[in-house]
Design brief:
This protein has about 160 residues and is an alpha/beta fold. A 5-stranded mixed beta sheet has the order 2-1-3-4-5. A hairpin with a 2-residue loop joins β1 and β2. The longest helix is centred in the C-terminal third of the chain and has 28 residues. The relative contact order is 0.15.
């Protein structure tokens, strides 16, 4: 998860929502990514989606059933879907997403019949404080900059 946090930091520095993801197979990192929605101007350029694409290219298969995925934020509906369809074995995530999380928060995807096959195991709360802090700090800074910009426009 520390490497996923380093990926999240890359996203933050690029003014992207700071989410990072790492995919591991047999104890080796085979893919890592961070959010790139703004840079790519693509709604699907989430860290998980990009990491799964990289892992599939590297392994030359869509079936990642011997891989584990680490992500700093609870996956959204799109990413939860691609994690399941990619047959990720284990999902580790850092902090819940009260606005979009579909593993445990808004939707408990493992409770839906016929969808609960993958991932086989979900572990939440991994380095939760650190994963939460990078997001909170990012959005606090965004709000501060927005407030300053509005104030400057008002003064002009």
């Amino acid at each position: 998860m520390r490497i996923a946090l380093a990926e999240a930091e890359k996203a933050r520095k690029a003014d992207e929502v700071p989410v990072g993801c790492v995919i591991v197979r047999d104890g080796e990192i085979i893919a890592k990514a961070h959010n790139l929605r703004e840079k790519k101007q693509q709604a699907c350029a989430h860290a998980e989606f990009l990491a799964i694409q990289k892992a599939s290219r590297k392994l030359q298969t869509w079936c990642l059933n011997d891989c584990d995925l680490y992500v700093t934020l609870e996956p959204c509906m799109m990413c939860t879907g691609v994690i399941g369809l990619s047959r990720i074995r284990k999902l580790y995530y850092g902090t819940p997403d009260p606005k979009g999380g579909t593993i445990d928060t808004l939707i408990q995807v493992k409770e839906i019949p016929h969808i609960r096959t993958y991932p086989k195991e979900v572990i939440s709360g991994v380095l939760q404080q650190e994963c939460s802090a990078i997001l909170s700090d990012f959005f606090r800074e965004k709000r501060k900059k927005s407030k300053e910009l509005k104030q400057n426009m008002k003064n002009d």
